[in-house]
Amino acid sequence: MSWQLALYNGLWRLLTPLARRYLKKRARKAPAYREHWDERFGQALSPKAKGAIWIHAVSVGETRAAQPLVAAIRREWPDAPLLLTQMTPTGRATAEQLYPDAEVRYLPYDYPQAAADFLRSYRPRCGVLMETEIWPNLIHAAAAQQVPLLLANARLSEKSLNGYRKIAGLISPAIRKFTAIAAQTTEDADRLKKLGAENVSVCGSSKYDIEVPQAQRHLAAAFRARLGGRRMLLCASTREGEEALILDAWLAAGAATGDALLALVPRHPERWDEVERLAVERGLKTQRRGDGAAISADTRVWLGDSMGEMFGYLGACDVAFIGGSLLPFGCHNLIEPAQVGVPALFGPSVFNFQQAAADSLAAGAGRQVGDAAELASAALALMDDPAAVEAMRQGAARFRDAHRGASDRMLALIREAMAAAK
């Protein structure tokens, strides 16, 4: 064991009280954090079925991104049990909604014994970690127990690479033990190799393969009916600090006096009340999606206080802004607007979706704005220009269709890994 791994394990033991305090603090705003603590700390190991195909998706975005891969796995191995693990309550709730026949639970924190016991108890046929989930003890335990373990939809920014290099003695031995890695882009693959990764393939992102469920299309139609013909700018997955900037820019642009509606859907549900307060403090009449009512003519802000309905909101809007990009959060899923053919605006911070942002711009599916003022003016200009909106809708279709097929390429890696493990 390297000294860095020994230090890492020592820190986990020392930080356990802080982890419990963190969960209690989060539970004040999001009560779901009080639940299933035993799973987080490596207890409650009572699998419904051993030998499952296991997918770990840390939160909502990763859980949704796994959908096409799960569908491909089920076509290939229809009788195999499915195990889904997450780290957040919203991710867990999303998994329970999307995969009702799967076993859903939290992945334990990366204590050496907890990781080993989890794998020994569940005995998965194969494990797939979505995006950049590098848990050293879990990876070492999988190798020791001969569980094929893949990293899918893998991405690594230059900033993250530089951070990992500082703890290369901890990360590099672990990343070399992945059975296979499916990187999103050539740049991601190159950066992963610089960390010592082997067996790296460029497969793209499974997010492009997601099909909009029919229920979400019906929901979009219901939302449009509630709009009563009004135009709508959707600000999706906004983060703390962004809503205030957007509201101020919307007011400064004079948009709050017209018929255009501003819809805000915060990334985290515990912030719904806070975002409503921000709008009301600015004198903007606000309604919540949860009231089920038609949107009044004098309502200026519609608050999306629901989970799992993003395609419904996207299908009802005229223009979408993708949150996490005005402030340095790296942007959230800017592929989703393309899946419903909606023009997408995004801010300057896109390090989580750098290649997708470039491809979106090249296809004419998206536009990048420098700040909230530019966001407001660009959205209003688009809503007054049907020809420009139609051109961006066509660009969205090109952007989406050019990148499909990642899930089948990942399935081939899983098939190969499972065959080699027999």
Automatic annotation (TrEMBL):
<dbReference type="Pfam" id="PF04413">
    <property type="entry name" value="Glycos_transf_N"/>
</dbReference>
<feature type="site" description="Transition state stabilizer">
    <location>
        <position position="131"/>
    </location>
</feature>
<dbReference type="InterPro" id="IPR038107">
    <property type="entry name" value="Glycos_transf_N_sf"/>
</dbReference>
<dbReference type="GO" id="GO:0009244">
    <property type="term" value="P:lipopolysaccharide core region biosynthetic process"/>
</dbReference>
<protein>
    <recommendedName>
        <fullName>3-deoxy-D-manno-octulosonic acid transferase</fullName>
        <ecNumber>2.4.99.12</ecNumber>
    </recommendedName>
</protein>
<comment type="pathway">
    <text>Bacterial outer membrane biogenesis; LPS core biosynthesis.</text>
</comment>
<keyword id="KW-0808">Transferase</keyword>
<comment type="function">
    <text>Involved in lipopolysaccharide (LPS) biosynthesis. Catalyzes the transfer of 3-deoxy-D-manno-octulosonate (Kdo) residue(s) from CMP-Kdo to lipid IV(A), the tetraacyldisaccharide-1,4'-bisphosphate precursor of lipid A.</text>
</comment>
<keyword id="KW-0448">Lipopolysaccharide biosynthesis</keyword>
<keyword id="KW-1003">Cell membrane</keyword>
<comment type="similarity">
    <text>Belongs to the glycosyltransferase group 1 family.</text>
</comment>
<dbReference type="GO" id="GO:0043842">
    <property type="term" value="F:Kdo transferase activity"/>
</dbReference>
<dbReference type="GO" id="GO:0005886">
    <property type="term" value="C:plasma membrane"/>
</dbReference>
<feature type="active site" description="Proton acceptor">
    <location>
        <position position="62"/>
    </location>
</feature>
<dbReference type="GO" id="GO:0009245">
    <property type="term" value="P:lipid A biosynthetic process"/>
</dbReference>
<dbReference type="InterPro" id="IPR039901">
    <property type="entry name" value="Kdotransferase"/>
</dbReference>
<feature type="site" description="Transition state stabilizer">
    <location>
        <position position="207"/>
    </location>
</feature>
<feature type="domain" description="3-deoxy-D-manno-octulosonic-acid transferase N-terminal">
    <location>
        <begin position="35"/>
        <end position="210"/>
    </location>
</feature>
<keyword id="KW-0472">Membrane</keyword>
<dbReference type="InterPro" id="IPR007507">
    <property type="entry name" value="Glycos_transf_N"/>
</dbReference>
